[in-house]
Design brief:
The complex is a heterodimer of chains A (247) and B (465).
Chain A (H helix, E strand, L loop, with lengths): L2 E10 L2 E10 L6 H11 L19 E4 L2 E4 L14 E4 L6 E3 L2 E2 L2 H8 L20 H8 L9 H5 L1 H4 L10 H11 L9 H5 L12 H5 L6 H17 L2 H11 L1
Parallel strand pairs in A: 1-5
Antiparallel strand pairs in A: 1-2, 3-4, 3-5, 6-7
Chain B lengths: L1 H10 L8 E9 L2 E9 L5 E5 L3 E3 L20 H9 L3 E2 L4 E8 L13 H4 L3 E3 L23 H8 L14 H13 L9 E4 L10 H8 L1 H11 L8 E10 L2 E2 L13 E3 L16 H23 L7 H17 L6 H15 L6 H18 L12 H25 L17 H4 L1 E7 L5 E7 L5 H9 L2
Parallel strand pairs in B: 4-11
Antiparallel strand pairs in B: 1-2, 2-3, 5-10, 5-12, 6-9, 7-8, 8-9, 12-13
Helix pairs in contact in B: 2-12, 6-7, 10-11, 10-12, 11-12
The chains are: A alpha+beta (247), B alpha+beta (465).
């Protein structure tokens, strides 16, 4: 059976380095299979987070040959195996150990987003009536598996470390799903403009490129939200009206 | 549904201890008073004092080589409850789902939803024959289509049509697939064909229809197997999917036989009898998860805090850290796990018999000895080798319960099929097989009559004909 070299980052918050492991590869293998094989045969304590192995749980995010990807959905046949395959943890989050990162910052951000606020029920039995077409728009956003690859690749977080001022693409998608829901009555535009810092996004579309669920993050979620923020706060006529009202 | 629940929970102020594994349920005076475990991130031990505990740990799929379950399905809840003194029942009833992926090897076992057959997908052997028409059990003859046309109409919503034989119970379809493969009529990689692409001949926009109705299956095969299911047939075979048995609970409160310990979802037993039907797991966990939570809360309010036995905590810590003392020179935990999976697959799988299961019991004893010698390298921080070494004990307890219960049930029923007793035995139909930890630490197996159904429930069943 042919062999390939996997160059895996091992270490923790205090530092680490790449280690080479040579293992057998067979037809149909994905990167996560190779990592498991190395773990079972050569390095029992190699830390990797994973769960469904079918691209649905969003646990096995990593950087493979420098690209943020799910290890379970990256087939070895799509990689040049004559060179070592480099596998590193997501770099935008603190390292815990080896390929496992601390993504708890994301869960904290989610808590700050105003929850779904539906309008009063349309029928006496407590149910609503909505047109399928109206709710179709948010279905795409609900495909998100929270792998946080979009957060990993976003330069606002990765290069500029603005974790305190910027919610990141994942949470703009999440907010878009709420804002565009036909039943929702909550207004999140002030939060987007303020603490969630949507203005930092300069639409380089890196998040869209790495999304394993192919969500059109920039075009369908972030840009419409930016437009709503602009309409709300920067439209000159509205500004004038606001000024007149308050005067 | 998971995300909606999660979103709701976040704003209710619920604390979630992510990646935290429980090693021991703590008891005081015959009731549960807490749980003791560790966090994966740092390997720190954690004590949770609680007046009630609800187990929702899922199944035991990782006891088998081919499974649709993730690494977490190591029977933790069942083993914790058993070790604390609760009863397990129906452990012989393991469901093998007929359609898991078989190729490539790395995805073997991943589930292919029943929805494919529900939308008109058909099973064929290598000769192109729809073999499910060849073996329709007498019990289901009246409800099953005897021709392809009627089966197709059923999948398209015709209420007067009978269902196609592909939608017979999972155990039966799984055994038919095993038979086709054993008799040399399987596909190149040891499965059979599941074809949804043929519906293009029936529906003008078939390709779009398949993508719309089965988006995740389209994606799964495209990404993992390089197969376009709108054009080609899938190769599928049985995969360990679900255990009907588990922790014995009260049908109303979901409390186990150990006061203060509740269970819901797959780790609880009873609701699905010997065989679960498609879709019922989700309704089970929604309805009985809610009930378990409500009853646990009521129970907790009535209790005073219990006493934590320090000696138990110390013993649990000692046992948990023992693999580090043996170090990398000890028995490799992954190797033991793989050997267990191979053995259960071969000896206590879809088709069982007395001799093989007795061999499995001997094998389990040997694996237990090896587990006691398991060693790991490294430290406690996010160390999967260590976690695997500890999970082994749970897998072994559950595997033993499955095997002993399956030996005890000398008939075939639901998910449990014995080639040495291939028919149903009416007398056994009134019995549950129960497992309990004896005073000597050995597993005791008992045959117990199924409790009689309450009159008002009987009434409901009669009303609905």
């Amino acid at each position: 059976m042919p062999k390939a070299t996997f160059r895996i980052w091992r270490g923790d918050a205090s530092g680490g380095k790449l280690h080479d492991y040579v293992t057998e590869v067979s037809e149909g293998m994905v990167v996560l299979d190779a990592v498991h094989q190395i773990q079972a045969e050569q390095a029992n304590d190699l830390a990797v987070r994973w769960n469904c192995k079918a691209g649905k749980c969003g646990s096995c995010s990593a950087e493979i040959n420098g690209m943020p990807r799910l290890m379970c959905m990256t087939r070895l046949s799509d990689l040049p195996l004559e060179e070592p395959v480099t596998i590193e943890p997501m770099r935008s989050f603190p390292s815990l150990r080896d390929l496992v990162t601390d993504v708890s910052w994301n869960f904290g951000v989610k808590k700050t987003i105003r929850p779904f606020g539906p309008r009063p029920a349309d029928a006496p039995d407590g149910t609503w009536r909505i047109a399928e077409g109206d709710v179709d728009r948010v279905q795409e956003f609900r495909k998100c598996i929270e792998c946080f690859l979009c957060q990993d690749v976003c330069h606002v977080l990765r290069e500029h470390h603005l974790h305190e001022e910027f919610a990141g693409p994942r949470f703009f998608v999440y907010t878009a799903a709420l804002e565009m829901h036909p039943l929702d009555t909550e207004n999140r535009l002030g939060d987007l403009r303020g603490p969630q810092g949507i203005g930092y996004c300069n639409i380089t579309k890196c998040c869209t490129k790495v999304c394993p669920e192919s969500i059109t993050i920039t075009d369908n979620a972030i840009i419409p939200l930016k437009e709503r923020v602009v309409d709300e706060f920067y439209d000159p006529i509205r500004r004038l009206l606001r000024g007149l009202r308050s005067g | 549904m998971i995300r909606t629940l999660q979103d709701h929970g976040i704003h209710r102020g619920i604390d979630v201890h992510m990646e935290c594994t429980v090693l021991k349920l703590l008891t005081d005076d015959g009731r549960v008073v807490g749980a003791f475990g560790y966090d994966r991130e740092r390997g720190r031990f954690r004590l949770f004092r609680a007046r009630a505990v609800v187990l929702a740990t899922g199944g035991i799929g990782r006891a088998y080589k081919i499974t649709s379950n993730s690494w977490e399905y190591t029977g933790d809840g069942q083993a914790l409850a058993y070790d604390a003194g609760a009863d397990l029942i129906d452990m012989e009833f393991v469901q093998f789902h007929p359609t898991g992926m078989v190729w490539p090897p790395s995805v073997r076992g991943i589930l292919v939803t029943e929805g494919v057959r529900g939308e008109g997908g058909v099973l064929r052997n290598k000769d192109g024959r729809r073999f499910m028409f060849d073996d329709i059990p007498d019990l289901y003859k009246n409800q099953t289509a005897d021709n392809e046309e009627e089966g197709w109409r059923y999948t398209q919503g015709d209420r007067n049509a009978r269902r196609p034989p592909e939608l017979l119970t999972r155990d039966h379809v799984a055994r038919c697939i095993v038979r086709e493969v054993r008799e040399g009529r399987g596909s190149p990689h040891g499965g059979v064909y599941l074809d949804i692409s043929w519906i293009k001949a029936r529906l003008p926009n078939g390709e779009e229809h398949i993508k719309k109705k089965l988006p995740s299956m389209y994606h799964q095969f495209k990404e993992l197997a390089g197969i376009d299911i709108t054009r080609e047939a899938m190769e599928i075979g049985p995969t360990t999917h679900y255990i009907m048995g588990g922790i014995r609970v009260d049908g109303d409160s979901q409390m186990s036989t150990l006061p203060g310990l509740f269970a819901a979802g797959e780790c609880a037993a009873g609701l699905h009898g010997a065989n679960r039907l498609g879709g019922n797991s989700l309704s089970d966990l929604l309805v009985f998860g809610k009930r378990a939570g409500e009853h646990a809360a009521q129970f907790a309010k009535r209790q005073a805090p219990g006493k934590i036995d320090e000696a138990v905590l110390e013993a649990t810590v000692r046992a948990a850290l023992a693999p580090f003392e043996r170090g990398a020179g000890g028995e490799g935990p992954y190797k033991v796990q793989h050997d267990l999976q191979d053995m259960m697959q071969e000896l206590v799988g879809i088709v069982r018999n007395d001799a093989e299961m007795k061999r499995a019991l001997e094998g389990l004893a040997a694996l237990r000895r090896r587990t006691a010698q398991a060693g790991v390298a490294g430290n406690r921080e996010y160390n999967p080798g260590w976690h695997t070494a500890m999970d082994l004990n749970n897998l072994l307890t559950c595997s033993e319960a499955v095997t002993r219960s399956a030996l005890e049930r000398k008939e075939s029923r639901g998910g449990h099929f014995r080639e040495d007793y291939p028919s149903k035995d009416p007398a056994s139909g009134g019995l549950n097989i129960a497992c309990r930890k004896g005073p000597d630490g050995e597993m005791q197996i008992r045959r117990e009559p199924i409790p009689e159904m309450r009159a008002e429930l009987k009434g409901i069943i009669e009303e609905n004909g």
